[in-house]
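Contributing new records

If you add data, match the layout below exactly. Sequence lines come first and carry their own label; structure lines follow with theirs. Keep one chain per record. Anything else will be rejected by the validation script.
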Amino acid sequence: MDQIPHHIGIILDGNRRWARARNKPTFFGHKRGFDNLKKIATHAFDRGVKILTVYAFSTENWKRSKEEVGYLMELFKLMVTQELDYLHKKGIKLNILGDTSAFDNELQDGIKKALAKTKNNRKGTLNVCLNYSGRQEILLAVKNIIKDKISPDKIDQELFAKYLYTKDMPDPDMIIRTSGEHRLSGFLTWQSVYSEFYFPKKDWPAFTPKDLDKAIEEFNNRNRRFGGN
């Protein structure tokens, strides 16, 4: 029997590359990648994964064209409105990790309603990182610890982790980055120190449930020693 990772992180990379390879506009790749997330998340939770954290929009992504950013924002609004019913029926809890204050009021309101609607779902938790940066997450944790006037001798790794977006969640057992890139780009900087990394060459829109199964198989072939021997 495969040991199923409790928590998997995925960097959703390659939407634009996938579209260009097919002579399609960038928007086409983002829409296909968006649709694929629902399919992969469903399969992951059916396999027994309990937490799936995906990197959908980083703080650096604001540098892209106004048109592309605007289209992505519309997809995120779709996720927390029309697509939410699908997640809710599947028993999936939705979380948004990142600084949501940068979004317009419509998206912020949609996020709040989506989190409230799915908060009691138990089949699995889907964390979507939006306007996220691992370094910014750590800096925010430091600022909040200072704000709370915590004595330095009280600060340890366990306490620090409670100030992160992923508080009360286990660190990811495995992190997947599609499209063949071999870097984390600020994804779960604190939480990924003992994660197993997996870098398939397929672009995200082409990543299938069978590809996720291959990743889980690879996870089972790793020897996770955590520095012990």
